[in-house]
Amino acid sequence: MTRRPLTIGITIGLRDPGESLWLNGIKQNALYLAKLFLHSPLGHRAILLNTTAVPLNESLPWDRSRFETRPFEEGWEGLDVLIELGGQIDPDQTARLKHQGTKIVSYCCGPEYVQNIEAMIFGRPLYDSIFINQHYDCVWIIPQIWDLNRGFFETLRRCPIQAVPFVWDPMALEAATRDLPHSGEYRPGHRAKRLTVIEPNIDVMKFCLYPVFIAERAYRQAPDLVQFLHVANADRFARENREFAMLMRHLDLIRAGRASFIGRVTTPYFLAEHTDVVISHQWGLPLNYLYLECCWQGFPLIHNADIAKDLGYYYEGHNLEAAADGLLRSLRHHDSEWQAYRANQRKRIGRFLATDPALVARYDDLLFNLVDG
Questions:
Q1: Which residues face 313 on adjacent strands?
Q2: What domains can be seen in the chain, in order of their start residue?
Q3: pTM
Q4: Which InterPro entries would you find in this protein's record (predicted)?
Q5: Arithmetic mean of pLDDT over the chain
Q6: Which of 44, 52, 230, 243 has the fewest CB atoms lying closer than 10 Å?
Q7: Which among 126, 165, 142, 171 has a CA at the least distance from the CA of 22?
Q8: DSSP class of 83
């Protein structure tokens, strides 16, 4: 069948008219996906559709002349495809879309299996705000959550499940760092380095404990190379969690007064102003925006994300000895190769970019498999 331009809606769910792109990654995800569709040689139309009552105005943190953005009720008619991403559609909206022949896709980029388990075990409210829509035409799942979440979605959503490529773009990062020195990119500094951990610490998948231990192991071997350790999203643990506080007291970094446990940070600014090296550890979520942001800006990243083994300083699994070795290697040698490192990282990240022709073609295949299927 001859391919044609499609009209594609992508949902967002604004909570505030001027909501920051750095509050979470979901709006960035919608923008990057829209940018990818707009780069198709077929000339698709991509519309961001807000599913909440929050008004759309000039305070939106993106250019509406570039990224068409409408309330859902003003943009749903005539859609070929609706991708539910950052805001949920309700049963009535679903029925209207199905009636006009729109294909509906659930684009899944969060670890919902683990989130549901934790909601059940720890009594976290979840289903008072979630509608389990069983009328999708397909569920698209990004690679880093595929293995752990596939069976969960297959069983609950009752429709075909498809793995889709991860999409990223430096546009939000570049907008945030435009006025920072060196556009927020890494520059060599003092011999002793500032280490940073920016795990969200909201579930077991991305928690700060092993990154802190990696910093500790490196500090024990070369204390003169470590100036300080910042651990973001961890202030409440240090203040209120007895087990966390007691455990930290066994570490040399803590005893030496070379660590702090702080609140939420905005990644681009904290990298530029307070960071020389980023240490990360994940368990079942082997790729996220943080890794790409750090590497794009040239910061050494110590990580175990096996989908991106060629980025940063990779260590396997939970091997903290290898992680500490990678950290020490970055502390000793990164400044002698920082320019080549940044250029190499950007080249390798190219496969994830919304402007990559191969990635655009892959999504065109996904779209037309859906529309023509």
A1: 302
A2: 7-169+353-371 (3.40.50), 171-351 (3.40.50.2000)
A3: 0.94
A4: DUF2827
A5: 95
A6: 243
A7: 171
A8: E
Q: What's the whole-number mean pLDDT along residues 130-155?
A: 91
Q: What is the pLDDT of residues 113-136, one digit of tens each?
A: 998 998 899 888 776 666 778 899
Q: Is the per-residue pLDDT at 19 higher than 90?
A: no
In angstroms, the CA 62 to CA 350 distance is 22
The per-residue pLDDT for 130 is 66
DSSP string, 107-157: EE-S-HHHHHHHHHHHT---TTS-------SEEEE-HHHHHHHHHHHHHHH
- 3-class state of residue 302 by DSSP: strand
At which residue do the structure tokens 């402007």 appear? 355
Residue that the structure tokens 């949920």 belong to:
88
Which two tokens mark 283?
A: 């368990």
